[in-house]
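Here's what a typical entry looks like (Mitochondrial ATP synthase subunit G protein):
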Amino acid sequence: MASKLVQLQSKASQASQLVAKHGTSYYKQLMEQNKQYIQEPATIEKCNELSKQLFYTRLASVPGRYEAMQKEVEYVKQLWKNRKDLKVENLGIAALFGLECYAWYCAGEIVGRGFTFTGYYP
C-alpha cells in the first residue's frame, strides 16, 4: 500500500511539473485560438447582459425540446402497443437504458448527500 502511495505521489509530482512547465503556453495558445469568443471590454454590465442572453436563449429552446420529448413519448407508446413485434435486441437496449437511468439517479443521490453512503460513517 505504501509503494502505491509513493507511486501516486510521484505521478502527481510529474503532472504538476508538466503543468508548471507548459501551462502558460497552453493557456496563451487556447486564448489565441478562441479570441473571437472573448468580449472586450469585460465589464460587469456586459457579463450580466451575456448571462441574461444565455438564460433567455436556453428558455426559448424549451418548446422545441418539449416537442422532441413528446415525439419520443409517442414513439415509446407505439412500441409498447406493438410489443409482441419487438426483438430481443430492442428489449436489451431498453433494459440497458433503464439501468443507466437508475445508475445516474443513484449517482445523483450520492452527490446530493455530499459523496456519503447511507449507513457509512468513517
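Residues 54 and 60 are 10 Å apart (CA to CA).

More examples are in the samples folder.
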